[in-house]
Structure prediction request, 566 residues.
Amino acid sequence: MKRYWMIILGAAVVALYAFYPAAPILHSPEQVIADTLLAQVDRFANNGLLNAVSNNASEKQLQQLFLQTQLAYKRFEWAAEYFDPAAATLINSAPVPEASPVYENGPGVYRTIQPQGLQVIETILFPHYDTRRKAELITLLSQLQAASQRYKRHFTTVPVLGGQVFDAAKLEVYRILILGLTDFDTPLTQQSLTESAVSLQGLKSALSAYSQSEDILLLLDSAAINLKHKNFNQFDRAYFITHYGNPLSRRISRLRQHLNIPLIRYPRLLQQDAETLFDPYAFNADAYAETPSTPAQVALGKRLFADPLLSGDGTRSCASCHQPDKAFTDGLVKNTALGTHQLLLRNTPTLINAALQPAFFYDLRAASLEDQIRDVLSDTLEMNSSVRVAPQDTSWVVAALAAYIRSLVKLNSRFDSYMQGSKQALTKQEVNGFNLFMGKARCGTCHYMPLFSGVFPPAYFRMDAEVVGVPKSVNGTEVDDDLGRGAITNTPFLMHAFKTTTVRNAARTAPYMHNGIFTTLEQVIDFYDKGAGTGLVNQTLSTDSLHLTSPEKAELIAFLKSLNSK
Ligand code: HEC
Ligand code: HEC
Prediction:
């Protein structure tokens, strides 16, 4: 009986379609998404801010319009960042110039990103409109229009693919968790949590094009509600990530599988098939390898690493400075040059998770692990093995050492277990410390979760160097002489810029910073708390004190200790 009803109903639907005068054309979900994106780009481009500036509207009106413009961008940020990242840079790049090595079409490509877009506009309009910068403001707003045109052309001419939508949607969830929960984009207006809520609504409008996405849409709604109108300093990020963020990226992965939409694959540090940022195999250490490593190479590399024969005078191995029981550091402020008492230029960094970087050394001068190793082997101060091995082919040595260092990827701390679902893996104090790290203490705006280094997420092909103004002595009033990245690139704004090193295993890698000046984590936290190198140098972080209380400092340190690898 039921079946007859179905047939009759079906026939009725067909009849309706056939005789309905202007039967709507059925669009694919991706076509619907492209149309939605076009409308969203239009709303962003026609926000009225440019007109208002030209007509000398009041500061309050301009600020209001600016906040709306920022939110209008957030609605299609997931697609803007994915389909045309260069145009996204025009809309949303840092308010200071950046020249970070990027891994694009192979290692060693350097690109300077000029300050432009919303973040610079923010500095003109907040906290007060700087009318002297009106002409600059108009130019910047015109650039936003140009970027919008690029997006419109893209979404009208290039078909959007289902696999791309799901890849981009998951990356947007990661972007929100890593950057959106900090005040990375909006240091002055501090509306990052509200913005993240709007980004989630943008994802909702895209994913609603797919049938069977109801449970994701509900989750997106409740996640957005959880973010809105929250106090930035008090927001519980750990709760948000485990209750909303991780379930969201997981469900997005599963819906793609369920719909049989193929996975988009290209070499990437953050694996496409990871369902959350914290999956044990989310990061692929071989992504930047000249050739993928084999177990035999790893075993050989491990032996060579500890073999003094590799050094010019046979007295020193890699392990003399990178000691496995000290998280591959040496506990010294600076080690000495081969065969002398002369100090090396810099503190020995950890090698745990070092492979997860697109550039190496404190000044980022080596663009691949292989280059980095060639450099160390021939460095007269460190190994000087060029004397011994110069006439021979050393590529097998380099490949083996690189394979060994890639085997030292260990994202298996208690913090990782917590994020994978073991609630008891962290104490309340440690969770508070994590929330401070991502919020009030602003550490997460440079040490990006979950690698907690300067590899820029979620694409992970750029490595950031920052000027924090590390002093010559612990409470010193003079910046350390080392020019860092500035000496390599000879660019004024990069003088005293250093790679943002990972803080994973920091509890085991004292002393700290490129010059090993701080002996304890307490000293490091005090340094940041008083505004880092304020007054010593033109730094890239806020000069304000963080106003951390002593219990808060203890919480931060407890969290850092939870990042030790097993
Ligand atoms: C004399 C001490 C010493 C020896 C020996 C030594 N290193 Fe290092 N290593 C350092 C120092 C110091 C740095 C940081 C230098 C800089 O950033 O300018 C470094 C940096 C590195 C880095 C880059 C880490 C990063 O995150 O950027 C890698 C990888 C590395 N060393 C591997 C090796 C290997 C492999 C060997 C043996 C062939 C070796 N090192 C031998 C002291 C040493
Ligand atoms: C503006 C970006 C920025 C911010 C914000 C920031 N850091 Fe750093 N951090 C860096 C850079 C760059 C270095 C390397 C500096 C150097 O070696 O001279 C670094 C180094 C460190 C180190 C030393 C790691 C080592 O092995 O030597 C620790 C620990 C650290 N930061 C913790 C923190 C904490 C905790 C916070 C928040 C209170 C924080 N950072 C905020 C950029 C930043």
